[in-house]
Amino acid sequence: MSKIHFIAIGGAVMHNMALALHKTGHQISGSDDQIYEPARSRLKQAGILPEEEGWFPEKISSELDFVILGMHAKKDNPELLHCIESGIKVYSFPEFVALQFKSKLKIVIAGSHGKTTTTSILMHIYKNLNYKFDYLVGAQLEGFENMVAFTDSPITVIEGDEYLSSALDLRPKFLHYKAQIVVITGIAWDHYNVFPSFEKYVQAFDDLLISLDDHSKVIYFDEDNQLRKLINKHQSRLNCVPYKAIDYFVDGENYCDKQSGVTFKIFGKHNMENISAALKVLEGNNVDRDKAIKALSTFTGAAKRQEALRNSAGKKIYRDFAHAPSKLKATMQAFREKFRESKIAVFVELHTYSSLNKDFLPEYKDSLILADKAIVYYDQKAIDLKNLARIETQDICLAFNDNNLIVINSNLDLEARLLKEFSSYDIILFLGSGNFGGIELNEICKKF
Hints:
By secondary structure, this protein is of the alpha/beta class. The protein folds into three domains: 3-88, 3-Layer(aba) Sandwich (Rossmann fold); 96-296, Mur-like, catalytic domain (UDP-N-acetylmuramoyl-L-alanine:D-glutamate ligase); 307-445, Protein-Tyrosine Phosphatase, Chain A (Alpha-Beta Complex), CATH 3.90.190. It has helices spanning 12-23, 39-46, 78-86, 93-100, 115-128, 198-211, 225-234, 269-283, 289-296, 325-338, 380-385, 393-400, 411-421, 441-445; strands spanning 3-7, 27-31, 66-69, 90-92, 105-110, 134-136, 148-149, 155-159, 181-184, 217-221, 239-243, 248-251, 254-257, 263-264, 307-312, 315-320, 344-350, 373-378, 406-408, 427-431. It has a seven-stranded mixed sheet with strand order 7-6-8-5-9-10-11, sandwiched between helices. Strands 15-16-20-17-18-19 form a six-stranded mixed sheet, sandwiched between helices. A hairpin with a 5-residue loop joins β13 and β14 (263-264). α5 (115-128) packs across α8 and α6 (198-211) runs parallel beside α7 (225-234). The longest helix has 15 residues, at 269-283. The model has no long low-confidence stretch (mean pLDDT 91).
């Protein structure tokens, strides 16, 4: 067993990977400048929570077998510099994951949207059908203790992110995995800080296809024009399989598979597309469709995706991770299709580097057009921390193409507006990857 140190152990995937390796008997240590819940409690329960927050190069022993570096750590991190000076081997986390999964059948789910849900759908089906498999996914999933598993199983399902691997490894994470089966759900510009133009963003997916061995299977969303163009460049060398949404119908507020009649707990056309992508993967693994669909009848989605915070007294409140423009549009379409007659108020947080950048903001045009009332929240501190130019209310209204948009940059104003003005709305949505300035959404929901 190895002695392994995690630099930036508090990250969502990083702390789950630390827990998975600790569970298999490795000796784990770690550090981070800030560790939030649930990582803090989970690491503490396992006995591997750092004694104090911060970076302590003097505590890194030469007896370590290697170090795993999280993306949160900068290239001038004192522990990282110490490792380099001392000759201690440093892996980015996708580099290490690739080594762990090297001999397995690797299924990688990539794309600008739907990665986590499609990965989770596959995991849910495999688990319910008693298949042995490893996995790496970007959100907590009901029925799974961790977001990462390293075992002796022959198959692994990996959420393949296009973001950078680490401060030392500027390649997209998904280039490490060398999968035999790849799903690409679509291409919509994101991560402006890494890909300052749409062309550079597309190039990352082109590089992914170039990295695959001949005859690798690529399952791609056929209604994405940009993705089709990319596939056309490679389909003479790769086994390219298109998909669209499964045939489904909506019965009241229920989404149902037309072929079997099975009712799903998740909803929206984009999720019917995600299901279809997973089924295309399973076709090549000789998994019966009827059994897979039946298993999905109990799938409630990944954490913070279509998550119901309240459903009582005629009021429904949901949280969803949707933050990028394509995700926002798909989520709004899903809620409008499911709740056709309801009045919907939407709170969106601009939190990522892309969403707080003036040059990227126009990508959000008409993304909230299906809402009855739309409120956009951002924190000026987040802009300052990212060293971005200040944005004003007018910039956001123009970008979203909505003169009636309400823009708020104080979480106190946000809470007051929620409590005061929206008792008349049937559905309230909180959309974004941040925490709305630290507001406890579950506590606020109790006040309605």
